[in-house]
Here is the input.
Amino acid sequence: MKVAVFSTSNYDEAFLSKHNTGHEIKFFKVSLSEETMTLAEGFEAICIFVNDVLNQKILDKLKESGLKVVVLRCAGFNNVDVRHATQLGIPVMRVPAYSPEAVAEHAMALILTLNRKTHKAYNRVREGNFSLERLMGINLNQRKVAVIGTGHIGQAFCRILNGFGCHIKAYDPFPNKELQNSGVKYGTLKETLKDADIISLHCPLTADTQHLINAERLSYIKPGAMLINTGRGGLIDTSAIIAALKTGLIGALGLDVYEQESDFFFQDFSESIIQDEQLSQLISFPNVLITGHQGFLTHEAMTEIANVTFNNIDAFNDGLALLNRIEINA
Ligand code: NAI
Here is the structure.
């Protein structure tokens, strides 16, 4: 099939080229948007990523020019109007779980870095400063951690937390039996957030979870708690979290995703002025650590993403069952 692949970095092109099962693929470094949608005209398939936009207008236009199938190189699909695609008869497939451990391990990396301040120690030591002032952390052993969303990534994260000897509380509309048997205690969202030392978000971004962490919920969390978000930026109300950081209500914040990330992430702005007051403010706080949506970026995950993406295209092309299709009642 003729496949237009959007938002590619060099590593995407390398992994997708290596695992291509014989399709005619064209890479576009730009993301898919109303401004760039003409690039996709004439392609039967488009392959997109987290910050590509596939709304009603783009879908209508691309349907006219022969679009037959959409494959996402990710698990989350909040950026795609799947309902409209379904109405147009265009299946949307995703990579539901490429390597949950990759994201779960990144969440733990954020926690360990913020807690033991290794990013600061690295810079200090390079400048010959061996002072330990202001580097003190806490033991994770016996600490209470709230896990919001216990799907593939949340479960992998709980397994890591168990290794650290943490007390795990979780919230998910569909509690997981295996986790319960391993000692994870489920409660309501409020119960789960209330007395946690660390809160980590692993649920999808939906209408229900938009601004899940807002001013009201921040008002009852334990003062000084650490918040980690490797899910989607929209799970946190950015204005509310900045206010909570200023008052010390939030003791540390680790983000791999950001509400307005599509304007910046995956691009190099090192020679520019960041035109986003909230992002600039967050970057300036000493207790905030931001990574640019790299949770998925491991060798294992990229291999799996490339393989499943081509399996999805092949299944459509060969008229087989579309096992990774996102099902929405049109
Ligand atoms: P999953 O679909 O396996 O699990 C999601 C879980 O969230 C399910 O158990 C579901 O019941 C639960 N959930 C749904 N609504 C909820 C709510 N209101 N409150 C609490 N839990 C709720 O998804 P997976 O693979 O674990 O991924 C989770 C999210 O992580 C994805 O939707 C995506 O947004 C994000 N992600 C981030 C990556 C990164 O590189 N930072 C990479 C991959 C995924």
